[in-house]
Amino acid sequence: MTVSPLKEPQVQDKSTIQQAPLSAEELRNMNAYWRAANYLSVGQIYLFKNPLLKEPLKLEHIKPRLLGHWGTTPGLNFIYVHLNRVIKRDDLNVIYITGPGHGGPGLVANTYLEGTYSEFYPNISQDAEGMKKLFKQFSFPGGIPSHVAPETPGSINEGGELGYCLSHAYGAAFDNPDLIVACVVGDGEAETGALAASWHSNKFLNPVRDGAVLPILHLNGYKIANPTLLSRISHEDLENLFLGYGYKPYFVEGSDPEKVHQIMAATLDTAIAEIKAIQHDARANGAKSLPRWPMIIMRTPKGWTGPKEVDGKKTEDFWRSHQVPFSEMASKPEHLKLLEDWMKSYKPEELFDENGKLIDELAELAPVGDRRMGANPHANGGLLLRDLKMPDFQDYAVDVSKPGSTVAEATRVMGKFLRDIMKRNKHNFRLMGPDETASNRLDSVFETTNRAWMEEIYSYDDHLSADGHVMEILSEHTCQGWLEGYLLTGRHGLFSCYEAFIHIVDSMFNQHAKWLKTTRHIPWRRPIASLNYLLTSHVWRQDHNGFSHQDPGFIDHVVNKKASVVRVYLPPDANTLLSVTDHCLRSRNYVNLIIAGKQPALQYLNIDDAIKHCTEGLGIWGWASNDQGVEPDVVMACAGDIPTMETLAAADFLRQHLPDIKIRVVNVVDLMTLQPPTEHPHGISDFDYAALFTPDKPIIFAFHGYPWVIHRLTYRRPNHDNLHVRGYKEEGTTTTPFDMCVLNQIDRYSLADDVLDRIHRFKYERAHVKQLIHDKLIEHKLYVREHGDDMPEIRNWKWTGGSGVDKTHSQDNGSPSQEGAEGTAKSRS
Amino acid sequence: MTVSPLKEPQVQDKSTIQQAPLSAEELRNMNAYWRAANYLSVGQIYLFKNPLLKEPLKLEHIKPRLLGHWGTTPGLNFIYVHLNRVIKRDDLNVIYITGPGHGGPGLVANTYLEGTYSEFYPNISQDAEGMKKLFKQFSFPGGIPSHVAPETPGSINEGGELGYCLSHAYGAAFDNPDLIVACVVGDGEAETGALAASWHSNKFLNPVRDGAVLPILHLNGYKIANPTLLSRISHEDLENLFLGYGYKPYFVEGSDPEKVHQIMAATLDTAIAEIKAIQHDARANGAKSLPRWPMIIMRTPKGWTGPKEVDGKKTEDFWRSHQVPFSEMASKPEHLKLLEDWMKSYKPEELFDENGKLIDELAELAPVGDRRMGANPHANGGLLLRDLKMPDFQDYAVDVSKPGSTVAEATRVMGKFLRDIMKRNKHNFRLMGPDETASNRLDSVFETTNRAWMEEIYSYDDHLSADGHVMEILSEHTCQGWLEGYLLTGRHGLFSCYEAFIHIVDSMFNQHAKWLKTTRHIPWRRPIASLNYLLTSHVWRQDHNGFSHQDPGFIDHVVNKKASVVRVYLPPDANTLLSVTDHCLRSRNYVNLIIAGKQPALQYLNIDDAIKHCTEGLGIWGWASNDQGVEPDVVMACAGDIPTMETLAAADFLRQHLPDIKIRVVNVVDLMTLQPPTEHPHGISDFDYAALFTPDKPIIFAFHGYPWVIHRLTYRRPNHDNLHVRGYKEEGTTTTPFDMCVLNQIDRYSLADDVLDRIHRFKYERAHVKQLIHDKLIEHKLYVREHGDDMPEIRNWKWTGGSGVDKTHSQDNGSPSQEGAEGTAKSRS
């Protein structure tokens, strides 16, 4: 078989604008500044001592282990110096997002040159001693990571995992009309799913009320060991792709620094002017249509200005520059020389004075004060964070005169609360969701705002508008990225998602939680609003998103993170959901996971009791228990709305058929209370735990998630050997929707059966009741298979306190059958 | 503020080809066939009884709960009937991948019409009785799910979560030169990250050896409650976008079925002809460059042919058609009439004979036998699966004459084995990885194959070629999707990934594991090759991908899935990795997770011992234990390469300083052995467990992952109260790379300290040894902070059997310092 013939690359020089706006002096100075940044970048990767190369370079000056990424760094530095120029000239408000975040040395170098680094870290001073420490600390134990991280001034984008820079950039720009977010996207990163989807964020940016994003796609051609896809498609395809994404692409291409400086300066001038023109027009005349925002495609060599070859192998403009271009300093003395020549090619003696400080002529190129990108307060959003104006959540309470007898839809109630929050905080709060806001029954928010939409709007469209604050795109990645960017720049929000699909952002959650954890130890990073998730359409009430692609494992994923950062709440009804929501929206620096149902469901607590219960986090439900003053036979614990209902129904059933049985019902809202206080700050003491769960009685725990989560949280607790947990298990052998017949793992009959298996007081009645249970299970299964719905006695069950008689009213109001098509059973799939 | 003016949509009729190739009879018949499919689709969503509407429609004929998705279904049916035409005419080999998989009714309807459904499920016969069952079973307890699922004949793409169809399609096409994969992409789905990235898969498809993918982007305009982004950008932008992605887009637009039938037929003829021409040219003249493959953009109304309005609200061509267009049948009698009129508009009496069978004239339109898309064996890949030709893995063994004294890189050894597997199975095995094959030290495979690359190749490029079988794209989603598609069509493969980044595909793993679980209960689905993951560059040896974005939680995620489907292996060295790899590649219908290091590391077992150890899954390492014939003081257990080394070093240290101590070392390779046999088939009996771990001695367990995984697996095991697990915890307060100083959570000194905390036999010596331990910890920390590397005594430690003297040789060969730039410390970020 014939394969493609090998080619030599054509010189790519299809820059869109061929002008030279820089004066000779400007050009010389900007290039010198860039050389300084590159020098400091290489120094961080290689040098242990001798930072200014005042002595001949020796092996002892080299770090024992060489880590870091050179390849992307000169391009990042190049962009930084050019942004500095326009910021300073036009007094622009710009932050810099580093997609190729492994280029950490470049961002550290630039914030050091502009002075912010030494302000945040006085120990890293702007002199030879500071430079030595700057070099040593990089990727060194006790120092800083090799990528852009919370420790890096000016950053809101963790540079570890790739793909999220552009959604972060748009999140930062929303409701920040004066901000320009320059976002460098690496061509490797551009291959990821999250990044590929996020280009479409331009369709949500309103030039009237939002800031601008200037994407700079950096085509340096190579990843770790491969070319990048985008660098090897034709100029025309590349242009078409970004035209198709709705941008106006400007190409900046070349490898001769002097030429590329001129082209970049001209292009940046044009892009900034176009941004200003779009904004000016929209702000004067209204946002009439989706603007075509400019973007820059910068094609420069990987490892630009680094060694052309190492050991005879192509290095500059190739993947061998990706990381440390050469090492083996001990075994190959010529490498020491190569490094010395490379670093000296930047002529440090022209850049730094004899004390090691950047010379004044160059230092003046940087913006000053908060205009420095390392000092811009938007990149330390806690500085700008203001409390939400909150309505009183108690005003939205549903009336619960008797527990377990009336029905409400919890998230619909929450929607009204969110509506009034959004009304009071028009420029400070966004609700994100992958096309699920209405389906999740939060649609009351549309009484005060709309879905953000900048494309065409038809006369019959539903709550779309350019100034909406509900953000819907069918990409969980983009929703999450937008919200992170919005929060990290000092605003508030909530992400509502089907539980079935939240695993899509597992790794994004990871990075954000770790970011928060790290910032706890960085005094200058100010607390930001918590990242709040509402998971609904949950696994126990899924019409369509059945056993094939649902699981409650996001809880497991969250509790793996550091206790000081994560919170998990399972409010059992509407009033508890209100209380939890209020608490979460007021909190700072956490990830709050709230799981609550959207379907019509029984209500248990009036608002006063709900507040008390949520404040404690867990507690005995006295009205559902009959062990007052006596020893309980069993503790029936529950967490989650469906497990709570089934637990209560089981208790009701048992008390009806075994009137002597003494049952204590404990409900858990705040999952973290179960952990020992040494593991989580919300954990109750062992003494309190034993008081609630008894030192020696059987505990039947019905749980929303995987059962071992409860074991894991409690395995060091008293009475753990008596704890029996029922939860979600991957046992179903069919993909049929199971919510028609809640009977599965945590149903009332199986829970009652569990209780009977663990108490032995009713030696004669026991067999009769067990027989009844087993008959009911079979009867129900047959009924469901025939009718496609739960038996009426299950569907319409209400709390009777063991009397078997619902004393409130008896019409069928619990049936979810025959739901309307709008706003109810809409599932994504 | 002024916002966009509302507009009426322009009629979109910019079809690329305006021809009418169908005869009047063809057109009439194809339209009738489509009506039949639509009729059966509506019937599945609504009808409980009266399938042929022979009686006037009554409430009792309607299902009690209405579930399903109408909106996408008529479009899916339309495409199906058109594909049937060209398949039959040209005897094509085509499978159909349904991106909008919630359109399950359509795929069920079509496979029923072509006869495959009744062949797989004889109970659903092609008559009125069968049709009644077909309708009832849909989204009904004991029936079938509402989306395309393993139960659906002809499917390899679970229709639950969106975004993976196109990567599945390309995976199916690789190495299947005669296959055409028609892949319908929904415009909602097209907003997801995974889908957006996967368009670039065309850059990996070689027309000589691979089949073709024909993407059909179905713009029906709306998601659940929103327009789709792609449906509202301009024709020009849409065309540019797909030109930019490298395709040749053909538009098919309209709402008049007769017209659109003609345009679709003409367009499909053109697309098939272009595919054939590309393949013919490449197969005759070689794959000289990346072809521009055709694709179809089909813009037809959502809910096409459904009710135009419901209750006065726009329904057809709007999001109200997304799911069940109307319900409330009991409270709104006019809805019953609406349904009857709708269904009768398809004129079922013209389509089905009096027995309820499709009339012969229409049935003849479908292809026959295996050409029917529901019966194509590629969509039941187990039918085509052939065993791999396997070299003997023992031939790759590293020599281990004395345990714990020689060094090898485990994955490098595995790479040689993979090389020879790939050599023997040139068209049947692919290795996937996000640009990490060389970094993960599997680069021996490049001695026999290359990276697949269809774009330009430069003279200095490294192992790129059009016929490579190593698949590298910087998208974990695409890698995973390709591999799933490849496996589901009956081939073999392995996905190697950094542990830090594998969470990106958590939800894809979920769906695949659940697919496998479900197929166990579908007799006609034949077993496929297991999905094998190699996670390396793992959390304990990460140079760059530090605490900011790594965690070992994929293990937790995997063990949440059904035990019959998942396997987790932690081979501690090269020979055990070989044995595990051989086992996994021979297995069927599992997900195998293998975690192994790539760095130079001590070797413990010769190949015979490795085979025995891996066959057992866990066992006492006698050579490392000194409790033969006596009671051990402690069991030191370990799983994972670094935990194993640290456990051995701790045992060595303790035996040196407390010569009387009796230590048993137990190593676990197969994590599932720890669970009770009732939970997992690999679980050993409690009796065997107690024999290994003792009934009453303390157990110090060093584990690669989060410690509670071990507790969760063992909490019902004997002696659990004595089990103390050390593993990964989110405790680090710095993002500094920690692998320079392995001392963190599971280091040798901390493990030794744990042992001393739990045994009380050495009442006098104990305090001295503890003091020594604490001194060592401080000494090491200071050393690391100064030198940036582990103390030599740690870096160069070898197993001494407690003598403190390494009797083999003494040169420093364990140091990872000063690694070469190529193939070693290349990390993605």
Automatic annotation (TrEMBL), chains A, B:
Entry keyword set: Lyase, Thiamine pyrophosphate
Keyword Lyase: yes
Listed GO biological process terms: carbohydrate metabolic process
One GO MF term: aldehyde-lyase activity
EC number(s) per entry: 4.1.2.-
Keyword Lyase appears in the UniProt entry: yes
Domain Xylulose 5-phosphate/Fructose 6-phosphate phosphoketolase N-terminal, first and last residues per copy: 23-383
Required co-factors: thiamine diphosphate
Region span, Disordered: 800-829
CDD domains: TPP_PK
Any single Pfam family the record assigns to this protein: XFP_N
Domain Xylulose 5-phosphate/Fructose 6-phosphate phosphoketolase C-terminal: 598-799
Family the entry assigns: Belongs to the XFP family.
HAMAP family noted in UniProt: Phosphoketolase
Protein name: Probable phosphoketolase
